[in-house]
Design goal:
heterodimer, A: Rossmann fold, 2 domains, seven-stranded mixed β-sheet, five-stranded parallel β-sheet, B: 4 strands
Chain lengths: 351, 98
């Protein structure tokens, strides 16, 4: 018996129909455009009657839409291993040696058998990673502080770094021996990751007990945003935030000796509200979760959104009161470039 | 020799082994997943270690997923992985392939 692996081209309507039907039968039902458009490659395993018996897809560094039918298989798991093998060798050809998968809890062990390690498991789904550099390698690169110290942590996108961010960091720096500031790695914002990281570093350079670190794939990462198994929006947010909080709790806190996490209060954003709620619930038992009221200037909340709006309008003066001199200098020097990004379609609402 | 890039060889199918090699700085750091790790774990590591030493590799992270591969299969996959990782696939070390 020969089973062969073939590419499935989703641009082909009937191939896509067959692929969707196969997945639907196995409980994967989210084919929203926002999900499927990220797919770069899809492969299928076909039996001797040319029936699809297993499939998997690649979207950047995430393995998605994996489903296997074991009926008529040589032995249980053989098709699954074959499909993932092929996916991994294709990832290797793309020079990707570190990848993630989201799956339902019941498939966790199947992935663990082939070398994946769970980062976090919730009742809705599990996130696993494989390859290198993994979370241990990521943590190895981060400077450590001695146990027994009060070590705070903050995760921020800082798009761009404002006086509000500064206020939060300063408060944590005052109330703790050390502070880790993790800057979100995902490059989806007006300010590029390198720029955001640099502006946070410059804006906190005078605070000696603050370490600014790239958040990597493990903090508010695009990877942990799988609108995959769940339809409802609020449900998705809750799932994602729980997963994010749990990765932080299970992977990050202990190795770095973190004793608290500081959050900015966000009365206006529903998503951030749910995120803060999830963090409190998930982390509260292990570390202090400190929610800090947002900094106000002239009775107005300082927000990076307002800064981005001022950039879009080309009126930097409007936002001077919200940003430190380091950020002012950068924006002034790069205004044209930033505006060009907005003209080219970079969204400035949201984060 | 220093590992230049991460490389992978082998599959996850029955009787095979998948070996991923990447740069390290702390000797040989193994991460082995195998149903028979208890009985054969040391032997699998030894086979791979021998190959790495033949290529004069001193530091490496080695991630192994074994699916019941025989010793000679493990050796072959290890050779393939190390040749890729050292970027010498065009100039194999014949003396170690005997």
């Amino acid at each position: 018996m020969t089973e062969r692996i073939q590419d499935i081209y989703l641009s082909n309507k009937s191939a896509k129909q067959e692929w969707m039907a196969f997945l639907k039968k196995r409980g994967i039902k989210n084919f929203a455009e926002s999900e499927t458009k990220l797919i770069e490659q899809t492969i299928g395993l076909f039996d001797e009657q040319d029936r699809l018996v297993a499939t998997g897809s690649i979207a950047n560094n995430v393995i998605k839409y994996v489903a296997v039918c074991d009926i008529g298989a040589h032995n249980k798991g053989a098709r699954f291993n074959k499909i993932i093998s092929e996916i991994e060798s294709r990832l290797a050809q793309l020079n990707k040696f570190h990848y993630f998968v989201f799956t339902k809890p019941r498939y966790q062990t199947s992935f663990e058998y082939i070398g994946f390690k769970a980062l976090a498991a919730t009742e809705f789904g599990v996130i696993l990673e494989k390859g290198t550099p993994n979370v241990d390698d990521y943590l190895d690169e981060i400077p450590r502080f001695d146990a027994g110290n009060k070590i705070a942590s903050i995760v921020m996108n800082a798009n761009p770094f404002t006086n509000g961010h500064r206020y939060l960091v300063e408060k944590a720096a005052k109330e703790n021996d050390y502070v880790y500031v993790f800057v979100v790695k995902q490059d989806a914002s007006l300010f590029k990751t390198a720029e955001r990281l640099e502006l946070v570093k410059e804006g906190t350079a005078d605070l000696e007990n603050v370490a600014v670190i790239n958040g990597g794939d493990y903090m508010v990462s695009f990877v942990s945003f799988p609108a995959y198994f769940i339809k409802n929006t609020d449900k998705i947010i809750k799932y994602q935030t729980l997963l994010d909080a749990r990765i932080f709790r299970t992977q990050i806190i202990k190795p770095l000796g973190i004793t608290s996490r500081y959050l900015g209060n966000e009365p206006l954003s529903h998503t951030t509200d749910l995120y803060n709620e999830a963090l409190q619930k998930e982390l509260g038992a292990e570390i202090d979760v400190v929610i800090v009221d947002r900094l106000e200037v002239d009775k107005e909340v300082v927000s990076a959104t307002k800064v981005r709006e001022a950039i879009a309008e080309g009126d930097v003066n409007k936002c001077l009161k919200y940003i430190p001199s380091t950020t002012v200098a950068y924006i002034t020097a790069n205004l044209d470039r930033l505006q060009l990004r907005i003209k080219k379609g970079q969204r400035i609402d949201g984060n | 020799m220093e590992i230049k890039k991460t490389a992978i060889a082998g599959t996850l199918e029955s009787s095979d082994v998948q070996i991923m090699l990447s740069a390290g700085s702390n000797g040989f750091e193994f991460d082995l997943e195998s149903d028979v790790a208890k009985q054969f774990g040391d032997q699998i590591k030894e086979t791979i270690t021998k190959v790495l030493k033949m290529y004069d590799v001193k530091n490496a992270k080695i991630k192994v997923v074994d699916k019941g591969a025989l010793d000679l299969v493990i050796k072959a996959r290890a050779i393939a992985a190390v040749q890729r990782a050292l970027d010498i696939v065009d100039a194999p070390k014949w003396e170690v392939l005997k």
